[in-house]
Amino acid sequence: NMQSIADALERSGIGTLRFNFPFIDAGRMRVDSKDVAIAAIVDAYVEAKRRTDRPIFVGGHSFGGRMATHAAAEGKLAPAGLVLYSFPLHAAGKPGIERAAHLERIGLPMLFVSGTRDALAELVLLEPLVRGLPRAELYLLDTADHGYRIKKRERASDEDVFAELARATRRFVDRVMRD
After folding, report:
1. What strand order describes the sheet that includes 136-141?
2. I need a labelling partner for 98 at 20 to 30 A (CA). Which of 11, 13, 67, 176 fits?
3. pTM: predicted TM-score of the whole model, two decimal places
4. Of the candidates 74, 10, 14, 79, which has an alpha carbon nearest to the alpha carbon of residue 44?
């Protein structure tokens, strides 16, 4: 999934630096602690800054994006903005917004890209949450679930979901860099 996102972003002129969290490299199913995950994100951010003098946006899919927001909220990095693919607002079947309490401490521009069928981000909760954040916006992918699988017959657009995601990201990055 991250490869599909990275490939689509590359086709839209956005370079990516992908990395694994320690739990992935160790072959564990249980995610890393917040501190370990944030340290991995900060390491990747420092490496990205070493490789380019261009503006850096930080984010990720699901857990990675959520941990990136914690890193930003704690002031551990200072990117141009955050791009959050399938932000996991709550566990499946357990709607709530507790996982988003720290987001109000982030003054950076934020783009949330979420599927309309994402079981980890019910729209009735996600939409007002994003609206309430000062520099955040939400882009919805019609019929996409948490992993961006779509329902082809029900989807209004025939555009590839990853191409659409990249187009929305490109528009966001361009707008942030203009402002």
Report:
1. 57-61, 81-85, 110-115, 136-141
2. 176
3. 0.96
4. 79
